[in-house]
Design goal:
By secondary structure, the chain is of the alpha/beta class. It folds into two domains: about 140 residues, 3-Layer(aba) Sandwich (Rossmann fold); about 60 residues. It is built from eleven helices and eight strands. The strands form two sheets. It has a six-stranded parallel beta sheet, sandwiched between helices. A two-stranded antiparallel sheet has the order 2-3. Helix 1 crosses helix 5 and helix 8 crosses helix 9. The longest helix has 18 residues. The two termini are about 15 Å apart.
Length: about 210
């Protein structure tokens, strides 16, 4: 039985894809992406962020710049970002069952808190908004240690291949959602413990109702 559920933020709880694409489009020259359109989006969804970085030969310094600047710019757009349909209701159901809920994200805690307050989502016990693009493994390990949790007591809910990979390294269960950034076929190929196609699938997976 899971005691805690850790959620990814962008693409899992928050439907922030549109805001992110606006940032890339408005600052594509600054980021070094003179061409960033539907083709790149399709590649991203089909390959995942690691393969896209490799395929486009994106340097480490450019990734760091995009993350740093992107977080600041997102603070201006976060007010227009909404939770995915039925996400708020599902989170409230989970909270009423006594589960501890958390968020881990490469987005900033300031942005996440702003989003939660605006959308009146008051169910999360903690929010961790730090770490590199591929630093979730370390962050999750720290949470397990700090909160004195065993691996089998935690479920992670995310939408990308890097979420699956991070959880497999640690040994915690991963529920991959298909409404986020990564293509369903790509998620399936990377063998998450659970493939979640709608909000009720997660409820059923937890076998709480």
């Amino acid at each position: 039985m899971f005691k805690e559920i850790i959620f990814d933020f962008d693409g899992t709880v928050a439907d922030s894809f549109g805001a992110m694409m606006e940032i890339f489009e408005e600052h594509k020259q600054e980021f070094g992406f003179e061409k960033f359109g539907e083709n790149e989006l399709k590649i991203y969804r089909q390959l995942g962020v690691a393969e896209l970085i490799k395929k486009r030969n994106i340097s480490v310094w450019k990734i760091l710049k995009i993350l740093r600047v992107g977080k600041k710019l997102m603070n201006q757009k976060i007010k227009s970002v909404k939770p995915f349909k039925e996400m708020k209701q599902m989170l409230m159901k989970l909270k009423k069952k006594g589960l501890v809920l958390g968020i881990i994200s490469t987005n900033s805690e300031k942005n996440i808190s702003k989003f939660l307050k605006k959308n009146k989502i008051d169910v999360f016990d903690y929010v961790v908004g730090k770490g590199s693009l591929f630093g979730k493994t370390r962050v999750i390990k720290n949470i397990l240690k700090t909160r004195k949790l065993n691996e089998e007591e935690v479920l992670y809910v995310g939408d990308e291949v890097r979420d699956i990979q991070a959880c497999k390294k640690i040994g915690i269960k991963i529920a991959a959602v298909t409404w986020g950034f990564s293509d369903e076929k790509l998620l399936t190929k990377n063998k998450p413990d659970y493939l979640i196609k709608n909000k009720e699938d997660l409820i059923k997976t937890l076998n709480l109702f």
